[in-house]
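A quick word before the example. In earlier lectures we treated sequence and structure as two separate objects. From today on, think of them as two lines of the same record. Here is Large ribosomal subunit protein uL1 written that way.
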Amino acid sequence: MAKKLSRRLQELQKKVEDRVYQPIDALNLLKETATAKFPESAEAHIRLGIDPKYTDQQLRTTVALPKGTGQTIRVAVIARGEKVQEASANGADIAGSEELIDEIQKGMMDFDLLLATPDMMPQVAKLGRMLGPRGLMPNPKGGTVTFDLAGAIAEFKAGKLEFRADRTGIVHVMFGKAAFPTDDLLVNLKALQETIDRNRPTGAKGRYWRTMYVSATMGPSIQLDINALRDFKFGDAA
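And the structure line, produced from the sequence above:
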């Protein structure tokens, strides 16, 4: 049974034409349709020409959003010895060793991002069943397994995000808040596009970019001209 759309969303959908929008127009419309009673995020949903069941067609990486995420990120760190103190001194919200692993096993999930030092990964592996489904398992490709805790904490708190293509080859990623100025959203979206291009899987064949839609958290989907975004240079007429 199809889910009935709210009257608010039905009205907003009338504002979105059945066409592909230029980047600036799409982002302006995203802002116009962010009418929920809470600060909505700006989201991108990108279908790529990949089949992630093959290891050479998987996409998992990070993007540093130049204008930030608009969110406060709670960072937990699993390390040992002096690295625990280093993490706390550099802004980690939670830091610990085996005792933190035990707390997480008991259900403590009061964090948005988990970092781990490489030497702790054998113990962290036992948390895979809990953290994996939530997208919180530390991974070297995502920059969340590192000895450079100070650098990693600073980057993620400043707007670095980890993202991956789901099993159908679609990337879902938040690239700011709908309340951001349009130009700031465009800067972040361009950084995301360049990151996806730079990390094209070696096994990707044919047309890599299929479709891109943007939306506010509770708003309608707006199709964006991906070629126009890829060709966009700052300094172009908006």
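Notice the following. The mean pLDDT is 92. We will return to this example when we discuss secondary structure assignment.
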